[in-house]
Amino acid sequence: MQSITALCEQYHVDPAHAAHVAQLTIALFDALHPLHQLSPRARELAEAGALLHNVALSIDPAHHHTAGRDIIAAAQLAGFTQAERLTLACIAAFHRKAVRPETEALFQALNPAQQQEALALSALVRIADGLDYSQTQSTRIVSVDIDAGESPIRLRVKGPHSHEDAARAEKKADLWGTLFRPLHVTGRMTRPGLAPDDTLAAAGRRILRYQLDRIDPDDWLPAEGAVVSPRLIHRLRVTTRRMRSTLRAFGDYYRPRSLRPLTKGLLRLADCLRPLREHDVLVAALEDYTQDCEAGAETLAGVEALMAAWQAERETLRARVCDYLAGPAHAAWFEALLAFTQTDQHDRPAKLGKPWLLRHAIDALQAEHLARVKAFDVMPDAPSVENLHRLRIAIKRLRYLTDALREVLPAERVEKVLAACVAAQDAYGAVNDAHIAAGAALRFLEARLPEAGDLDSATMRGVVDFAEAQQRAIDAQLPGWRAALEPLLMM
Questions:
Q1: Distance between CA atoms of 9 and 363, rounded to whole angstroms?
Q2: 367 C-beta neighbours (distance < 10 Å), count
Q3: What is the DSSP letter of 344?
Q4: Are 200 and 357 in contact (CB under 8 A)?
């Protein structure tokens, strides 16, 4: 008699893949039990069949399903009856290619109840094997939703290679759909899943798809009239910036005609989100000012008109963003970008002598972004706020690139760069936000000067005081700009 472990070792079965498929099979068995209603013993057979499904891969890759069937049928497996060994052999035979049980002699040797069980277990192993199509053991099951009636089962998975694994699993769910009901599988990336031998075009596409997956599709494309939260607006804005940075870094590896509509759509979305984000900054700055300043009650009361105006403008901008997100132009852009990430037909052909793999260019990419940051060290000790903002943008691009490539960069270097970028961004961001707030407050007054009678002296004094407070904050923080940059200059 021979154990499953011994048989796997004898035929050099990949233990990581086999164990992962077995784990996924058991998870599916348990989640789908309301439909198949198989016994606890069948659960043990499902696990055993998953461990053995590739038993012949090392000796006959092209026909390993049928060769594996014959190996299992001939083996004297300890702890299994003859009918159970035939079931395990059928699972191996049916785990790939089209399933034709009527032509399988071992299947015909089972009684009707055993046949139904063998098919159900084979269906589970087929799906589980598809969920590790990437051979990375990185895809995990998030949820299995079974609605009443005959609607498709919704299986959600996550992992860096979950999209390709999900597509393969759904294709291999054909047997399950025949036996029970259709099963729809969707993936969500948890990281880009980069490898040094990826082409630069493929790496860029994977990073873009990961960035898309950081926000739910329903949030990317909200229904008309849906309420879009401030938190989602912030996430959309950050993700949009990251995508623009990705296309800027990897754009040379795609056909310009394919890239143009994507970059234009990103720019339109950014232009739509930017004013709303700025008004969030304005309202937050005014709230902080009223809480922290030592001005009298009369002066504080004077900023109420400013607060009311900015809040009203913010709601108008929020409605505009919601309308844009629910509109056809944004939906068309989203679908185009999604399609772009799923095919290599937009990639430029490789050229000998030009870096084309990620390992060829990864250090140079990061070094180029770092050099652009270091080039700002020539600014005077009291730089303009506009130039400081340009430095902040360069640091953001370095941060976004480093974060996107963290899987293929040395971990110590990644953390060092990211920490320095975040610290500098925070310092320069406070200056920029104060600059935006001061300018907006003065524009509020300028717009009302022809109708100054509508503004009492307290209101005017309160707005001016607020603007002056923002300028004092700028003046206090500007001298420290070089110290914030120093860690990046030393790299």
A1: 41
A2: 11
A3: S
A4: yes
- Hey, what domains does the chain have and what are their CATH numbers? 4-188 (1.10.3210.10), 200-489 (1.40.20.10)
Task: Label residue 74 exposed, middle or buried (CB < 10 Å: 0-12, 13-18, 19+).
Answer: exposed
Q: How far is CA 436 from the centre of its chain?
A: 31
Lowest mean pLDDT among 219-223, 245-249, 297-301: 297-301
| DSSP annotation string for 187-215 | EE-SS----TTSBHHHHHHHHHHHHHHTS
Cβ-count burial 434-471 (b if 16+ within 10 Å, e if not): bbbbbebbbebbeebeeeeeebeebbbbbbebbbebbb
Per-residue tokens: 312: 């009203």
Query: How many CA atoms, within 13 angstroms, populate the side-chain half-sphere of residue 453?
Result: 0
C-alpha angle 357-361-362 in degrees, rounded to nearest 5: 105
DSSP annotation of 354? S
Spell out the residues 6+ positions from residue 2 whose beta carbon is closer than 8 angstroms to its own: 75, 76, 77, 78
Q: What pLDDT, on a 0 to 100 scale, did the predictor assign at position 453? A: 52
Interval 350-387: pLDDT, tens? 998 999 999 999 999 999 999 999 999 999 988 999 99
Neighbour tally for 196: CB within 10 Å: 12
Average the pLDDT over each of 302-311, 331-340, 377-386, 453-462 and give the range with the smallest value.
453-462
CA angle 312, 314, 316 (to 5 degrees): 75
Other C-beta atoms closer than 10 Å to the C-beta of 201 total 22
Residue 187 phi/psi, 5-degree rounding, is -110, 160
Give the span between the Cα atoms of 407 and 253, in whole angstroms: 20
Per DSSP (E only), the strands in 78-210 are 140-145, 153-158, 183-188
Q: What percent of the chain has pLDDT over 70?
A: 97
pLDDT digits 0-9 by tens, 406-448 = 999 999 999 999 999 999 999 999 999 999 999 999 998 888 7
Indicate the length of the chain as a whole number.
491
pTM of the full structure:
0.90
- Reported as a pLDDT band with limits 50, 70 and 90, residue 226 is confident
d(CA 133, CA 21): 10
The mean pLDDT of the chain is 93
Q: Which is more confidently placed, 322 or 445? A: 322
